[in-house]
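Go through this pair.

…
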Amino acid sequence: MPLRLVSHDIVTMEVGAVVNAANNQLAMGGGVCGAIFRAAGASELSMECQALGGCKTGEAVITGAYNLPAKKIIHTVGPVWYGGNSGERRQLTSSYKSSLNLAKQNGLDSIAFPLLSAGIFGYPRQQAAEVAVEAIGEYLAEDPDMVVYLIILGSKGEFVDASLLSNIYKIESLNYGEDRSPFDEQLGTQIANMMVNKGLKQSELAAKSNLKNVELRNILYGIEPNHPTLLAIGIGLELGQDDMGSLLAYQGPWSASDKRLQLANFFLEKGQSDIHRINLNNFALDFDTLP
């Protein structure tokens, strides 16, 4: 699962890089920034940051991690919210992508972000989360093997999509309504055929399914996935109800207590197949994310 939505303490993350929500001066601040400085060792980290000479909004720089379990700290400056018409979305997107590119350039294969700009910089939290999953998703479309953690603390309910919130009862009522038979061909072969018919490369389907390349390749060559992974692949393929039902039938009936199928169907019926947006809603509703 390349993008993972979690509620962990960022200073405890054992990843290639943790991302600091920095200020332009790269000085120790409050919130996430202060917590990272204190946990890493404020004196040593401050000295290295001072030597870098600051960081522009939307850009990123890298330092040692000192006492943190991560290998590196990437410092990025997100935008201050001025109402949304001052380039904030573009700058916030740049903060995520600059950080991801810097991690890749330094040979790091995992990175943990806080929800950038959503604290004292005032970016509305739901909009900040939507920009985050969109920016990270666009990056993962090119590099599906980078593992990205997005740490979201506090209330989750505000991240539920407004259209879903107004129709929340559909999570209980949406279903396929009948049993379906699996496809006639071997599962990996059928997925490969659908991938070709959709004009998707393996790496593209992996990214659209929130899978690593190797995970999808193993499935194409005969490893049987579980139900959530099959659902993620169906989302990546943008399947309709009939084909999705046949795909999932390989693992038998979907558990009635697991509402992720109904949630995914809600978005697919609206023509929305962004698995990261779907997973943000799973996370907000305390459902497990996919796959």
Summary: The first helix runs from residue 31 to 40.
